[in-house]
What does this fold into?
Amino acid sequence: MSGNKDIRHGIDWSLIIIWAVLMFLGWVNIYASVHNSTSPDLVSRPEKQLLWIGTALILAVFILFVFKPRMWAVLSTPGYILILILLLATIFLASDIKGSRSWLTFGPISFQPAEISKITTSLALATLLGTSSFKLNNFRNWATTLFVLALPALAILAEKETGSMLVYAGFIFVLYREGMSGWVLGFMALVILLFIFTLTSPRWVPFTILGVSVLAYVISNLVSGKRSVQKKKKKKSRTLLFSLIALAAGTALIFTTNFAFNHVLQEHQRSRIEVLLGMKEDPSGVGYNVNQSMIAIGSGGFFGKGFLHGTQTTYGFVPEQSTDFIFCTVGEEWGFLGCLVIIALYVLLIGRIVLDSESCREPFARIYGYCVASCFFMHLFINVGMTVGLMPVIGIPLPLLSYGGSSLWAFTILLFIFLSLYRHENTY
Amino acid sequence: MSLDSSNKYRKLILGLFLVAVVLLGKIFYIQIIDDKYKISASNNSMYYEVINAPRGLILDRNGEVLVGNQSSYDILCTPREVADFDTLQLAKTLGVSVKYVRDKMKEYRYNRTRIGFQSVPFIKQIDAEAYMHFAELEYRFPGFKGQVHTIRKYPFNAGGNLLGYVSEVDAAFIDSHPEYKSGDYAGRTGLEAAREDDLKGVKGYRIFLRDSRGRIQASYKNGEFDKDAIPGRDVVTTIDARLQQYGQELMDGKVGSVVAIEPKTGEILAMVSSPGIDVSMLADIGKHYGKISRNKYKPMFNRTVMASYPPGSVFKLINGLIGLEEGVLRPSDTYPCSRGYSYGNGRKLGCHNHRSPLNLEEAVMMSCNAYFCYVLKDILENRKYGSVEKGFDTWREYVLSFGFGRKLGSDFPGELSGNIPTSRFYNKRYGKGSWKFATIVSLSIGQGEIGATPLQIANLAAIVANRGFYYIPHIVKDSDDITIDAKYHHRVYTKVDTARYNTVIQGMWRGVNDRGAGGTSNSAFVEGLDICGKTGTAQNPHGRDNSVFICFAPKDNPKIAVAAYVENAGWGASYACPIASLMVEKYLNGEIGEGRKELEERMKTANFIN
It folds into this structure.
């Protein structure tokens, strides 16, 4: 580090621009979604959001220019433990807001430890996997890694904040990048497919999917590879072992899915999944939000109805329209073009983070970058997927766009820690 | 780290693109390809304020308004918007008791989930003064608002059960008529029901944008897409309001019907069913419905088309005409009558005391029973047909051509077909080949198994007046707004040649006008009107005979044909005959001659109900 260099050196300005543009577009759409409202809480939201954006800017500058990048690695473990304690405390301290106990209130400030836990978990994961001696090739290391991820995830689950918990599933992409076999991802996808088709289709459908998948696995493993005979032999027996395990596990899953669905899941979770999978029509109950959201987006057409001209979002048909359902306002007032722009911005942001991460020499920065990309990706996929009826109703915000300081701060910190680490990389 | 990790980020970015494509694909689908969300959106956010269409008027043939419209003032309540208010003041303003207000509020609270944000009627049809008073103080009663809508007005007390009533549709009605919504009004009986499609008009609307809680936000595109209501079409009836009213006066206190038809058009001039409904009850039928439906004489029941009676002696005209057409009777044929007709085993169908023998004309004039027994016997036992059964089938064909035993096809709802028995019916009852003329002798004089509606009997009068044809009797005229079915402009001929009617008509003329010759219809005589009539006395198994009379006038170029049917009033000449002739006189002369005022008074005051 040399003090003589331009202070702006090494900063990925494209990420900062996208970050700023998304916040701006978020504010515009928050304004649009509440401008016609009479509720004082809603009317004050654009002003409040301006305040959040302002403070986020200060945070960004602070992280980027004031805070020493090396400190993040140092702080990761204590931070992780502190937030884990907060998460556990929240379960008992928080009051019930819309069925979840995830908000901690200190005087005028209230925040969700779950939002911050994404940062600390990312840092902790980066520290763990970034250790030069640590490789995901033995049971002990796997167990440690999963343990680090599972602790906060389970605490969040106990808070009944299912959305944030699902975001943790995104860390699987980080693990994949850091050595996990692609087949594990495939296996996960298979589990999800089997779950869905067992619930919605006759028995033979999930079994066919299982059979075809395992067959494809076996064939692709036996055909490929120009390895030695010995290795081939070893690989062959391993492949067969995995296939058998997959078949047995898949069969067990098919037979236990209905039981798990009916007896393990809670009533509201069950009905959300049922509505999503089209097993139950319920436009006024659980399906109300999704239905109204799809009506709002669907009525936008190609060019949208124009700023402040949405009828669905401005007149309050869509619930939570400035927070979790902000994308409806985009869809209705800006149409397909608006949706395309927003999603393209996210793709650029996430893709850029991935590319930047790949260029980092320090594993810590790279792994942390992947964590950030995964969090953004999961939020984007779950949130937009929910508003267009591809995902069940899971209340998580759209990063940087949704109303709310907690989430805006969390994503700003998440992103700018990476920017800081990345800048540090480039100032060697 | 595995060897291929450098490739992994490419796969992940590819995955990122795939997910973005899936999301955008779904968005593209719901925004561009699938229209249903746009339609849902407009239903969601647009509030259609309905503008009710004024209902069409019902007019009489001379342009008199039988049914008009007048404003009615209702107070609506939106329970969700009700805030604290002065119960006592509201009660005083609207002229109701405090308890009424409290009970209503209790009712709303009880049904609050069902009512939601809707407005419900709080009180209906308050008078204009109370409404104005309320309007001044409306701001003090949040959640309450006034609504003006039109209700029916009846300037003429004529044809209560003919016109029918309009009432708010109920759940059962909406089930069978899905185009109606709760709160709509529809004609439920009579003409109001029959011409509902013409009268109702088309509702208009104003479009407002509203939010998800139903609160109005703004007019949609400055009313560009608003639609005005189209008023209902006026229905011009064939009814002569004054004649109808006069008929009701004559029938007051009697059970029965009077139907008057203009023979040369088939237009129904009057259609009186007694006892009827006073039009003052129609406007607010809900209040009177219970009383009306408990009345044992069923005022709602329109006897003119819904009651089936034995026609009695007026039916002899048909038998005579069939006899002539079949060639088994010549006008000059005479038959003896010794106070009746014996048909074996000592059985006798009685007749009144008159000279004997008579020819056809005289038999019609004096209404001889025996004569028409001989005639029907000859028709049924005609060798040409080989059996009574075949002869009977032929006879029935003729009778049906006179509009009996089937629905005439009038535009009035609820018309019955009456009854003309079939040979199969008798085969079933007596066994095939086991019945003969003597078995069914009472058909000769319009008794027995024959049932006819007063409308069919009036139509018979019109047929005779026209010398052999009729137009289907109908009650709605062609007008600027409405063109009636072409079938009402077609002549329907009977199977009896027009040339055969003269003898019968001459008998009917003499029955009225040849005074002192023994005619049964003398009391129908009016100087200069040339009324032709035929009495009937229909035996009634439940009590005194029914008094029946048909007539038309003038004899040449008839302008009106009337049938009167008075239950339990004795023989035809006693009541039906004077009542029908008074109708003719009123219609043709506009007033009742001095000499007949006393008769008129006697008819009006006669009471068989109490």
User: Anything to note?
Assistant: The CA atoms of residues 126 and 367 of chain A lie 5 Å apart. Chain A has a mean pLDDT of 84. Chain A touches chain B through 48 residues (CB under 8 Å).
